[in-house]
């Protein structure tokens, strides 16, 4: 993952606060990683910072100058000559839009790959003069150092498609003398609030700590999985509550399967081909959905279909039961949700806490069962109070006829 710790906004913030740009960048990067951790997003294997790669970036610029694809201007900046790259505009052809025009550029669409030195800005000495990297060149140089001449996937927000990604593709193809640099571009839609893109400048943002505090990381992840990554996602309490309901359906289902498998050992186990065929169809369908542009929303719907099918079987009053296909369905659902980043497994600390909750829920069940037999309204009311207090602590109890169970909700 590339970290841009040198750019116009960071430098401007440093000048305004009289703080070194590195300190500004480290502060925001630290906050970023805290947010990612709270969302259960794992750190990438490689974190590449611009300030650590000035040498390879300047070599990249020098190569473009040597090949004639870059030229030095009077202001000390180096520009990419788009007139010498006929494929410019392959991602999004916008010939009337470019970087702010200056008298030193040959063409309107040319973009800076190295910016000449300005007073107060960080700079490095090179063969063509003093300055700093341009925004677009940073990514290309670092990626080329790590991955070589070609990249399988390159992701970013939809607003980066042009000019940032277009310029990356152009300068990278020119540097490597190739027709294609990134094989697949993944452009992610914006997170909107009331039909408007969330932006600090508009002061309409919701912080990640606030989201996690009100809901949970898994709930927000489920909301994202239920939408198409290419399109803007409207953030609202309604959407988050829907995602929470879906997540809870899976949690309750996995609990139901555990109870079903463990509490019916006295019944005759039967092999159900129809259930297994249904599972196979969903497995094949989900694979195709992921092949077709990571259609996670359809995958979630397919998993909910499996839950519905399995629940109908588990609720049948029959002397026969079907542990094998039901367990296989549960294992598949758990596998997919885990692959999608859901943290459904328990740590040792969670296991101890859950054991204590198990004991409390079982004790309440025994009291409630006796109260029902004796029609003791006072005890039943006390059991309801315990249930409601547990729910306020995000523990929801389900009073089934045979065995009670609980799930964590938020």
From TrEMBL:
Task performed by this protein: In addition to its role as an aminoacyl-tRNA synthetase, has also cysteine persulfide synthase activity. Produces reactive persulfide species such as cysteine persulfide (CysSSH) from substrate cysteine and mediate direct incorporation of CysSSH into proteins during translations, resulting in protein persulfides and polysulfides. CysSSHs behave as potent antioxidants and cellular protectants. Mitochondrial cysteine-specific aminoacyl-tRNA synthetase that catalyzes the ATP-dependent ligation of cysteine to tRNA(Cys).
PANTHER family associated with the record: CYSTEINE--TRNA LIGASE, MITOCHONDRIAL-RELATED, CYSTEINYL-TRNA SYNTHETASE
Origin organism lineage: Eukaryota, Metazoa, Ecdysozoa, Arthropoda, Hexapoda
Known cofactor(s): Zn(2+)
InterPro entries according to UniProt: Cys-tRNA-ligase, Cys-tRNA/MSH_ligase, Rossmann-like_a/b/a_fold, tRNA-synt_1_cat_dom, tRNAsynth_Ia_anticodon-bd
All copies of domain tRNA synthetases class I catalytic, residue ranges: 3-243
Similarity section: Belongs to the class-I aminoacyl-tRNA synthetase family.
Protein name: cysteine--tRNA ligase
Source organism per UniProt: Pararge aegeria aegeria
Cross-referenced NCBIfam families: cysS (TIGR00435)
